[in-house]
Structures are given as C-alpha cells and as structure tokens.
Design brief:
The chain is mostly helical. The chain contains 25 helices and 3 strands.
Length: 551
C-alpha cells in the first residue's frame, strides 16, 4: 500500500483487458483520495503503456498527467519512459501539443523535487538544537571511517537519489523527443536544462555522456519502417532542414558554453567541430552575436591548450566580429587591438633548423603540426595560410597595430623590429609592468619570448659568452629555466651549444654567408644608406646595389 512496492512487469499480464480511460482515471482518483497512491499507479500503468489504445483523447492526457505525478513521487523513471514512448505514438499524428504538455509537466515536477530535496538537506544541517553541544561519539566514528561530515551524509541520503532521477529524466525526454520535428523546441530546452544541471552540480561524467548522446542523435538517422531498407548515410550530421539545423546549432553553442565553464577543453573542441560541420551545411550565415560567443570560446580553448597560433587567429576573428556587430567605444577598440597584438606576439618563432639525425622525424612532426593548425583554422573560416608572418601582415594591413595602446606598440617594436640585446629584457620588463590585470595573462609567455629573442640577437653578434653575463641580461629567468630555453633554442635554430665545463655558451658561425649574418649585413647596409641620404639628400644611395654587393 502506501509504502509498499510491486513489480510493474506483471501488471500487463494481470489485466486481460484494458478498462476504459474514464473508468481508470476515476478509480485512480479514488485511490489517491484515500492515500493509496501506489495502488493508483498500478491501476493507471496498463492504460498508459498498452499498445491496444490507438485513439487519443483528453482523458488519456489526464491519465498521463496523473501517472507522471505518481511516478515522480516514487521515482519510477523506467516506466515513465515506456509510457512516454507509447503516448508519443498515440498523439504525434493528432495532437503533438499534448505530448509537449505532458513532457513539460514531467520536467517541471522532477526539477521541483530535486530543489525540494536540496532545501531539505540544507535544513537537516541547520536544524541543530544546541550549537555548543559536543559532537556525538557516533558522528565522530562515522566521520573518521567515511571521511564525510553531516552535510555530505545528508546530501548523499536526501539529494543524491533525486539528482539521479533528474538526470534520468533529461535522458528519457531527449530519447523520446529525438527525430520528432514538431518537438524540436522542447528538445532544445531539455538539452539546455541538462547543460545547466551539469554546470550547477559540476557533473563532469554526465556532461560527457550527454554530449555523446546528442552527437549520436545528430549523426544517426531515424530507423525506417519495418520492411524498408535503411539508406546508406555518409559520416557526419544527417540531412536536416534549415529550422532544425538552426536549433541544433543553438544546442551546440549552449553545449560549448557549458564545456568551457566545466573546463572540459577536449569536449569543447569536439563541440567546435560539430558546430563547424553544421555551419558548413547551413545556407545562411549565423547571427553576429552568436559568432561572437563562438570566437570567445575558441579563444579560451586555444589558450588553455597552449596553441598560441590558433589563439591569435581566434582573437582576430573576435576583433572583426565585434567591430561588425556593434559600434565599440574607443577604449573597447583599443582593448581588443591590444589583445590581438599581444596574442600574435606570444606565438613562438618558427624553427629554422633541423638536425641531420632527426630530419625525417622533425619534418614529419612539423608537417603534422601545420596540417593540424590549418584544420583548426578552417574551424574559424580562415582563408589565408595561418602562420605568424600572415598574422603580422594582417596587423599592419588592417590597422590593428595603429589602434593598440602606445605601450603595446612599443612592445611590438621591441620584440619584432628593434635590435638591442644588451638592454632588451630590461626595456621589456618596464613595458610589461604597464599591461595591467586585464592583459596579465600575456606576461609569462612574453617573458619567455623576450628571452628567446635575446638569444637570437646575441647569436648574431657574439661567438661565446659567460653564463654569468647571460644571466645578467636574461632577467626574467633563473639558471634552470634559462638552460631549458637554450636547449629549446638550440633545437629550433641549431647554432648554439652549452659548455658546462667553462660555464659558457657558444654561438656557432660557419662562415660569413650564413643566412643570419647575411641578413644582418644587409640590414646594416640599408640603415647606413638611410643615414647617408639624411646627411646628403643630393646623394641617392641605391639600397638594392648595396645588397647586390653584399651578395
């Protein structure tokens, strides 16, 4: 009776015939009135789960509503799914709004009961007679054995069963509503509720399962009727209409936001690939506001994964999106430009040397990285070849560099254009101190980049140097970190080696025709030609002839 249990699987066989819905509803209401809710549930189940009922009626909807009330109270999720599947078949051709009403009622009930359980658990912890009373021996032993306090035990006993039921509710509704074009709005709302549930309660495993479930719904076509062969379906999203595609995109954007909040970056990247596949098949461009959120999430994903090249590309796209979507103020434009410039600056310099012993493996790794970056660039609709040189060219051609703050422009000139190895790090430090908290994330990678630039410039003017002298110039790092950067520089550039016996560093120069020295001499010749032209304007010095002589 009131607190008893029974086996629902036997209900269908204990009823040789199904009573009329009106009689079943009346009998169930009588049982509920005398607090025989479990018997009422047993009375209703054959009427809502039977396949013999082929015609929808308002009474059938009332039965489903009562069935939902009772099943939620007793947490019978399995039988709710069976009843919903039958009810979907009953009303999807006649009155789909009835299915919408029943499912919405089910979702609201489960959500309300989970919130009620949470408030009860909080009240259990607060409902203590004497705050100064000593902890009982029993609670002390429980805490020592299980490592849980009263709050953890109350949550496990009161809240967890309802959270499990609420999670099963979302899964059930998503499974029932899949492939139903008339229920797509409710399907989207349920998915967004499930995302909020995972974020609120930090349910990482459940979020991964939810993403996989939605991905299967998108890529797996509906089963054909009996006797009809299933057509061959290519990999990727199934063919859907423009309205359905828009709803699926909205679901994926909500999924991407939830993944970034939970810091599940691998799942976030898979979601980005899903979004890109849907965008490719969409004939209409997405709203600029939606694209802005998309690029913002890409910025977070690439920054966490240390993919500075794609991170800079995402900042470029976000910068262009914001200028096209709204009219940002001068301060906002400067902040956006600062982020774009600094994101380009922190991209590590490209390797210019490959050792003979590892040329094949290094080249294959480089080609793999390039292919990966170009695949990621396609996710951002980058038409140009994505590399640091291209992005620097875009900084200048689009006027982004001119819109950045004075200190950021000085930092760009210092790290990309100027040649001042003896005081470069000290000047960089002064500029980094002016960035502030909003740009503080770039400080650490910029200090590494400044040290690498220092080694690059020293290699052009020195043959060897004491490590103690190098430490005075590389003010951002300690000895261990500096040696790591030297090793990385050696693998990338190949013209430096360390001498631990003499505590020094050697820069190897084979001859005067190496590429670095040759470019340095050309640079000196160009600068001297400009000096001569300033001193004697009547003398036009042909820089091309200077370079030709050097060649």
């Amino acid at each position: 009776h009131g607190g008893g249990t029974f086996d629902f699987s036997l209900v269908m066989y204990t009823h040789k015939g199904t009573a009329k819905p009106e009689n079943t509803l009346k009998r169930a209401q009588e049982l509920v009135a005398v607090d025989e809710k479990l018997l009422a549930l047993q009375q209703i189940y054959p009427a809502v789960a039977s396949r013999r009922i082929r015609v929808w009626s308002k009474t059938q909807e009332d039965l489903m509503m009562m069935f939902m009330d009772l099943c939620v109270e007793f947490r019978k999720a399995k039988y709710i799914k069976e009843a919903l599947i039958q009810y979907r078949m009953l009303c999807q051709q006649v009155n789909t709004m009835s299915l919408d009403t029943v499912v919405s009622h089910y979702l609201n009930l489960a959500d309300a009961r989970a919130k009620e359980a949470q408030s009860k658990a909080d009240q259990v912890v607060l409902d203590i007679d004497d705050l100064e009373a000593q902890e009982s021996p029993e609670s002390m032993m429980l805490h020592a054995v299980s490592g849980e306090d009263d709050k953890d035990r109350s949550d496990r006993g009161i809240v967890t069963p309802w959270l499990k039921f609420l999670w099963e509710t979302y899964r059930t509704v998503l499974e029932v509503l899949r492939y139903n074009a008339k229920m797509e709005v409710l399907y989207k709302d349920t998915a967004q509720r499930a995302f909020s549930f995972c974020v609120k309660y930090q349910r990482v495993s459940e979020f991964r399962r939810l993403c996989e479930l939605l991905r299967n719904h998108l890529t797996t076509p509906a089963k054909p009727p009996l006797g009809v062969a299933a057509p061959a379906v290519p990999a990727g999203p199934v063919a859907i209409g423009p309205e359905s595609r828009q709803i699926q995109l909205e679901i994926r954007f909500a999924q991407l936001n939830a993944a970034t909040k939970l810091e599940l970056w691998q799942e976030a990247f898979r979601t980005v690939e899903d979004i890109h596949a849907l965008m490719k098949s969409s004939p209409k461009p997405l709203p600029l506001a939606v694209l802005g959120d998309y690029f913002q999430n890409l910025i977070k994903i690439f920054w966490v994964s240390d993919n500075f090249l794609c991170h800079a590309g995402a900042w470029f796209k976000f910068y262009m999106n914001q200028k096209a979507y709204r009219s940002p103020s001068v301060e906002e434009v400067q902040w956006l430009a600062n982020n774009v410039v600094l994101s380009v600056l922190v991209i590590p310099p490209e390797a210019t040397h490959t050792s003979a012993l590892s040329s094949s493996s290094s080249s294959s790794l480089a080609s793999w990285n390039e292919e990966k970056n170009q695949r990621i660039a396609a996710l951002m609709n980058f038409n140009a070849n994505l590399n640091k040189s291209t992005l620097i060219g875009m900084l200048k051609s689009m006027g982004v560099l001119d819109q950045a703050s004075t200190h950021v422009r000085q930092l760009y000139n210092l790290l990309e254009l100027d040649f001042c190895p003896l005081d470069m790090c000290a000047r960089v430090k002064v500029l980094l101190d002016t960035l502030g908290d909003r740009l503080g994330q770039f400080v650490k990678p910029l200090t590494k980049l400044a040290t690498v630039r220092l080694l690059k410039q020293l290699s052009q003017v020195y043959q060897n140097m004491k490590m103690s002298e190098l430490m005075k110039l590389a003010i951002f790092t300690d000895r261990i970190e500096l040696e790591k950067l030297i090793i990385a520089f050696m693998e990338a550039q190949g013209n430096v080696r360390m001498d631990h016996q003499n505590d020094s560093i050697h820069f190897d120069h084979d001859n005067l025709h190496t590429g670095d020295l040759k470019s340095q001499l050309s640079h000196v010749a160009s600068k001297l030609a400009q000096v001569v032209e300033l001193m004697h304007p009547e003398r036009k010095v042909n820089c091309f002839e200077c370079n030709k002589v050097l060649d």
